[in-house]
Structures are given as structure tokens and as C-alpha cells.
Amino acid sequence: MKDLSELVSSLRKKAGKLVEKHDLLIQKNDKLSEDLVQLKEELADKNQQLNAVNDKIKLLKIAGSVDSESTKDVKLKINEMVREIDKCIAQISG
């Protein structure tokens, strides 16, 4: 009978340790989930900043080309851009 009570006691201790480990893993998982959400938000912010910088670069390139090219070339580029915008609008509408 003593062996049985020792076995039960040992099982209870092991079960208690498993419950503690389980609780710790749940806490760790919750923390990692929070970190993941935060990192996704930071990534979205960085992507927005990158897009804004890319847009500024495009504008600066266009502005630089206006200074160095003739008016005729600039008009051709503007007309090309307008055609691309019209195509985009047609795709969205259609």
C-alpha cells in the first residue's frame, strides 16, 4: 500500500509540474503574440514610410528631368503619364 501512495504522490508532483510548465508556456505564447502584433504594426508603418519616400524620389526625378530637358520632352512625358493614368482608371472602372 505504501508503494501505491508513493506512486500517487509522485504522480501528483509530476502533474503539478506539468501544470506549471503549461501555464508558463501559455504566458510565453501570449507575450509572443503581443510582440508579433506590435512588429506587424511597425512593419506596416515602415512600409508606409518607404512608399512615401519612393513617391518623393519619383517626384524629384520628374522635377529633375523638367529642369534638364526641353519643354517638348516634358510635355511628352506628361502626356505619357496621363495615358497611363487613363489606363488605370479604365481598369478600375471596367
Protein model, in words:
The structure is a single chain. By secondary structure, the chain is an all-alpha fold. The chain has one domain. The chain is built from two helices and no strands. It has helices spanning 2-68, 71-93. The protein is rod-shaped, with a radius of gyration of 32 Å. The N and C termini lie far apart (83 Å).
What tags apply to this protein structure?
94 residues, mainly alpha
Brief write-up:
This protein has 94 residues and is mainly α.
- Quick one: how many beta strands? 0
Largest sheet: none
Strand content: under 5%
**What is the total domain count?**
1
Q: Fraction of residues in helices?
A: over 70%
Order of helices and strands: HH
Mean pLDDT: 87
First-last Cα distance:
83 Å
